[in-house]
Amino acid sequence: MNAAWQLWLQLFRRTPLLVVLANLLRAAALYFAVRWLLGSDEFLVVAASLYGVATWMWHTGQGYNLRGVCTAESFLLPNFRRRLLEYAAIDLAMWVLLPLVVAAVGRVPHLLLVGGGLLLIAATGLMMGSNPRSSAFIWPIFVVLGWMPSFMADLLKDALHSPFTPWLLLAIVALLLRFSVAPLLRIVDREADASPLESTSLGRMQTRGAPGEPRRMGAFGKRITALYEQLAERAMRRALTTYRRNPSFQQRMILVRRLLLPNDNPEAIGLRIVLVSAIVCFYFVAIMHRQHFNPVVIGAYAIMLSISRFPQLNVGMTRMRPNMADLYLTLAPETRTEYQQTISDALLVLVPISLLTALVYTALGAWLVHVPDPLRMLFVATIVSLAASLAALALHLIGPEGTTGRTIVNLVVLFGTMAVYWGGYWLVGALGYGWGGGLLALLALGFGAGVWFAAQREYVSRSPRFDAPIT
C-alpha cells in the first residue's frame, strides 16, 4: 500500500488540478447517483455523464504520471512491475468495480456493457496521457462517426443486444493498453536529442519531462526524422563546400542558418509542406461531408499554422545558450553587437519561410473547397502573414522566457493576427484592392516592421548569454 500511496502522491504533485477536478466530478456523480437510487430516475444520465468525464480525466493524469515514473532507472527498484500491477488493481477497484456495484444495486440493464464502457473510457484516457500522439489516431474516428450519425445510432442499438459486444469492448481495451502501457515498460537507450529549433514537430509531443527519459516515436516518425537528418546533413555539406569556394558574407550567413535552423533548408521545407498538405487534404475531405462552413476561415487557419513555429524560437534559443558559446568562438566577432546582429539576421529567414507556408496552405485549402474569390483571400493572407511573422519573430526573440509570459505573448499574437485577417478581408471587400489593400498594408506591415526593428535594436544591444536555463 505504501508504494501505491507514493504513486498517488506523484500523480497529485504532477497534475494537482486534474486530480482535484476529477474527484470533484466523481463526488458530483455520487450525489446524483444517490438521488437516482432514491427514486429520481432523471438523474441517472447526469450521474453517468459526470462519472465518465471524471474517469477519463483521472486516467489521463495516470497516463501522464506513468510517463515520468517508467524511466530506465525505475526498473532497478525491487518488484517495480509488481507494484505497478498492484496500483492498477487498486485503481480498477476504485474506478470500475465500485460504480458497477452501485449500478447493480440500482438494477441498471446491460451491466456487462456498462463495465466494458468504463474500462474503455479509462483505457482511452490512459493512452492519451501516456502516448500523446495517440490523439492523431483517435480524432479521425470521431470524424468518421460524424459522417453517418443515423447509421451509428442504429449500430449502437444493435450492439446493445449483441452478446459479443462486451468481448469486443474488452478486446479494444486490451489493444489500447498495448499501445499505451507496453511501450513504457520497455527499457530502451535514449536517442540523441534533436535541435531545439528542428521545426519538424514530430518529436515535440513525445518530449517527456523526466531527466534521461527516452523519446518514444513510432516507425513512421523515426523514418521521417531520419529523412530530415539526411536532408540537414546534405544541406550543411553543400553550404560548407560553397563557403570554401567563395568565403563571402552571404555564404557565411547561410552556414550560420544551416547550423541554427537545420531543417529549414529548401528540401526540408518542401518535405514539411508535403506532409502537412497531406493531413490538410484528409481534413478538408472529411469536413466536406459535414455542415457547410465559411471558406474564408481557411486563410486564418493557414496563417495560424504558419506562425505556430515562432513560440518554439523562444524556447529553443533559451535551451541552446550553452551551445551558442561554440558558435561565438567560431565566428570570432570583433564586438558583441556584431554577434547579436548576425544571429538576428540569420533568424530573419523564418519570415519568408512562414509567408511561403501560409500561401501554400491557403492556396491548397482554397482549391480543395472551391473558394469563390481565392485571389482576395491570397492577397489578404500575404499581407497579414508577412506582418504577423515579423511581429511574432520580434516578440518571441526578446519576449519573456517563462512559460506563463510566453503563453500570453503567443495568445496575443494569435488573436491579434486573426482580428487583422478578418478586418483586412472585410476592408479589401469594401474598398477594393487599391484603397483597401493599401490601407491594410500600411497598417499591418507598418506595425510588423516597426515591431521587428524595435525588437532587433533591443536584441542587438543585449549582451550574449551562454548560461544554461534554470529548469
Automatic annotation (TrEMBL):
Bilayer-crossing regions? 17-37, 43-59, 84-105, 111-129, 136-152, 164-185, 269-287, 293-311, 346-369, 375-395, 407-427, 433-455
Q: Does the keyword Transmembrane apply?
A: yes
- What are the entry keywords? Membrane, Transmembrane, Transmembrane helix
Q: What is this protein called?
A: Uncharacterized protein
Organism source for this protein?
Dyella flagellata
